[in-house]
Design goal:
This protein is an alpha/beta fold and 794 residues long. The chain contains 24 helices and 27 strands. It is globular, with a radius of gyration of 27 Å. Its main location: cytoplasm.
């Protein structure tokens, strides 16, 4: 559920974190409840941001239990004490479920322990139970201090100094079961674990023609089950918010046997541990297995993933999310006044927001209440738009109708990939083809982009042709960088021969340029007067009109994993600095965001010009760092950041200037960033945006069908579907030209540049950090933004 959007601030109202002093303040950070990957990244960010602003920061070990017990459980943190935490799963400072904190006596002990250290700012990382407990503690705070005063444990001066307790929460939960945020810390990593297992199981299932029933976590929330089903193309999914209708046993078995009869060698069924039937009865994975065996006689196995989902290293997304949230949490604590309510730092779309903690908790409790009352549609609505869109996309793709039941639109829609391959392209093509068929269109696949188009490499593509495509990397349709400009006449001829009424282009900057060329040639070729839509898919994430592109998350994970291994290779050796070159053309997204996720000391990009003095400053910074207990350095360089300061130059400079203090190694990551199986995010993102694009095409075709033919030549009929801040928006390509730097193939304005100060602060650089866009407490709302053709939330 999203917060309301506040208007943009004017430039003259900017405020910088330097003006928010933490001097004389003490901040404590604790992790509570179930652990989640990424919690350590949040702890690291809170500690470093706290120290950066001049505050004292304390670890509270073992959650609320440590706060109650006091002693060595509450220790002051140092900058070095959070080094190498970013890539570690779980929580290094420990977590425990504490019955004692639920009692008044326990909270009194905890208050005494905090007052002794002057801690009046608390950052709690946990689920709704942990955050509710923190809010109760805050409400009781003045009463607890008075009790301690009466008992002679503290004096009046201590009561005055510690009169207000400020609380900021961050949600760490793999279940993604907290209302008010699109993603909780740990969810993306848990999806990585699930998809790794599903991909591995698919190969053995195919070998033996088996059916696998996978049980995933989610006692009260089906997010993991739903999104993993969407990301792997599961045959059936069970989760608490959507109990199957009566008679589901027959429907499921019929669907499984139909899939087998069409040549599929395996079935995947995903069951959330809290799955229920329409009467509230528990549906277990064993029950589903026994049903399949007894009804269909299929060789069926059960795999319960269990705590594997909580384990392992955090994904790039969770590290970035945790780092952003941790920094924002400290800013929120510094800005809090006596009457500021406890808040949760949250993510809505691509925006960090603050929401009142208890509003989120109450909304989360409303979901459970709706489910208890069997109001399942209401529960889904309360979960928020992200959950709703996942569910509607799954329903759209899950039900294959018989050809006789499909509407017959008599429209032909062509799908093609253009540019370099990007992981997630195939998931988008699969989704587009199946949604198009469901909408009644005849879908055509174009091989090898515009090059294949003008050569006539076009054929109809059916539902079964895209089976199993979701988890495949690269581009199965084939993709080329060729632009259509020189072959417009032949492409127009192929569109006429095949009677193509709409185009869906999935690709990078060449796809954007190609569609611009086609749409601007509409006055010469009437064949191009059809609805056209582009979905950005490129590892570089350099497309104007979209904050994110399909493929960039997979590339980020490849960079992060490699940086982890490279850093570990220096473990136990002498002091070492690694210079790593990333892809991206002139766009510094991969280098910057990869640097934030990997804990880089410096990142060189084209968008932020640098000179020899900056390089010298960075070398001196690393030299100073090497004199501490941290003996590794990581420097990322975007491939085109500077034509003279090459990777070799920077390597040689660092080697020379660091002589006697550290030695250097360099790595060029190259095409490994483009390869590999798509991440869960890219599979899910590709699936959802392609479904939305095809629905837009259907709407545009109906509007532009007049006199027995399709004719669309308005600006709005050639669009790019992109993610902008909090919403998915269809934007006319012609309007995006003003936002584009065509020479360097990047957008003129890039949102992720705001993450660079966060990265620099966490690497201990003193910089100006504008916090004027944060600081507004929003509210959890059930009001929907109106969906228009050109602005639809995902």
């Amino acid at each position: 559920m999203t917060g309301t959007v506040s208007g943009p601030r004017r430039q003259d109202t900017r405020k910088f974190v330097e003006n928010l002093s933490g001097a004389g303040k003490s901040i404590a950070v604790l992790t509570s409840g179930g652990d989640a990957q990424g919690m350590n990244g949040a702890v690291r960010a809170v500690v470093r941001m706290g120290i950066y602003v001049g505050a004292k920061v304390y670890f509270i070990h073992e959650g609320y239990q440590g706060m109650v017990d006091g002693g060595d459980n509450i220790k002051e943190a140092t900058w070095e004490s959070v080094s190498s935490m970013l890539q570690v799963g779980g929580t290094v400072i420990g977590s425990a479920r504490c019955k004692e904190f639920r009692t008044h006596e326990g909270r009194l002990k905890a208050a005494h322990n905090l007052v002794q250290r002057g801690i009046t700012n608390l950052c709690v990382i946990g689920g709704d139970g942990s955050l509710t407990g923190a809010n109760l503690f805050r409400e009781e705070w003045s009463g607890l201090l008075n009790e301690l005063l009466e008992q002679g444990l503290i004096d009046k001066e201590a009561v005055r100094r510690n009169s207000v307790l400020h609380i900021v929460g961050m949600v760490g939960s793999i279940d993604n079961d907290f209302c008010g945020t699109d993603m909780t810390i740990g969810t993306d990593s848990a999806l990585h674990r699930i998809i790794e297992v599903v991909d591995a199981i698919m190969t053995t299932a195919q070998s033996h023609q088996r059916t696998f029933v996978l049980e995933v976590m989610g006692r009260h929330c089906g997010y993991l089950a739903l999104v993993s089903a969407l990301a792997c193309g599961a045959d059936w999914v069970f989760f608490p918010e959507m109990p199957p209708e009566d008679g589901w046993e027959d429907n499921m078995c019929q669907k499984l046997s139909e899939n087998r009869s069409r040549g599929s060698r395996l079935n995947i069924i995903i069951v959330a541990e809290g799955a229920i039937g329409s009467q509230g009865q528990h549906i277990s994975s064993d029950f589903v297995k026994n049903l399949v065996v007894s009804r269909l006689g299929l060789d069926t196995r059960v795999t319960i993933l269990g705590h594997v989902q909580r384990g392992g290293t955090p994904s790039a997304f969770d590290r970035i999310l945790a780092s952003r949230m941790g920094v924002e949490a400290v800013v929120a604590l510094l800005e809090a006044s006596a009457d500021t309510p406890a808040c949760v730092v949250s993510l809505v779309g691509n925006q960090a927001v603050r929401l009142p903690l208890m509003e989120c908790v109450q909304m989360t409790q409303e979901v459970q209440k709706a489910m208890d009352e069997k109001k399942f549609d209401e529960a889904v609505r309360l979960r928020g738009r992200s959950f709703e869109h996942n569910l509607s996309t799954y329903r759209l793709l899950a039900s294959r109708k018989a050809d006789s039941e499909l509407p017959n639109s008599s429209f032909n829609v062509a799908v093609l990939n253009v540019g370099a391959p990007a992981a997630g392209m195939n998931a988008a093509v699969r989704s587009a083809v199946r949604v198009g068929i469901t909408e009644g269109h005849k879908m055509f696949a174009v091989n090898d982009g515009f090059e294949g188009f003008h050569k006539g490499q076009i054929k109809e593509i059916k539902w079964g042709d895209v089976g199993g495509w979701t988890g495949q990397g690269g581009s199965l349709l084939g993709t080329k960088r060729t632009l259509p400009g020189k072959h417009l006449d032949k492409i127009a001829e192929q569109m006429r021969i095949n009677n193509i009424n709409a185009l869906l282009v999935i690709g990078g900057f060449e796809a954007y340029m190609g569609l611009l060329e086609l749409s601007s040639a509409r006055d010469k070729f009437s064949e191009f007067c059809v609805p056209m839509v582009m979905i950005p898919a490129t590892v570089s994430n350099n497309i104007p009109g979209s904050d994110l592109s399909i493929g960039s998350d997979t590339a980020l994970n490849a960079i992060t994993d490699t940086c982890d291994r490279i850093k570990q290779s220096a473990s136990g050796t002498k002091r070492r600095v690694f210079i790593i070159e990333t892809m991206g053309g002139y766009c510094g997204y991969l280098a910057t965001v990869g640097g934030l996720a990997a804990g880089a000391d410096a990142v060189y990009i084209f968008e932020e010009p640098f000179d020899i003095r900056d390089l010298q400053t960075n070398v001196e910074h690393l030299t100073h760092k090497m004199k501490t207990s941290i003996q590794r350095g990581l420097v990322l360089r975007n491939e085109n950041c500077n034509e003279n300061f090459t990777t070799d130059f920077i390597y040689q400079l660092y080697s020379e200037e660091g002589r006697g203090v550290f030695d250097c190694r360099k790595n060029i990551l190259g095409h490994m960033q483009q390869g590999g199986a798509p991440s869960p995010f890219d599979r899910n993102f590709g699936t959802k945006v392609a479904a939305k694009a095809v629905q837009w095409i259907t709407r545009m075709l109906k509007e532009s069908y007049k006199g027995g033919k399709v004719f669309a030549n308005s600006e709005e009929s050639a669009c790019l579907l992109g993610m902008r801040r909090r919403a998915m928006v269809f934007q006319p390509l012609a309007q995006l030209q003003e936002e584009t730097d065509f020479v360097h193939r990047i957008p003129k304005d890039q949102w992720w540049l705001k993450l660079r100060p966060v990265m620099k602060i966490l690497a201990k650089y003193k910089i100006d950090y504008d916090v004027s866009e944060s600081g507004q407490l929003e509210h959890v709302t059930q009001v929907r933004p109106k969906e228009s053709d050109f602005s639809a939330s995902i």
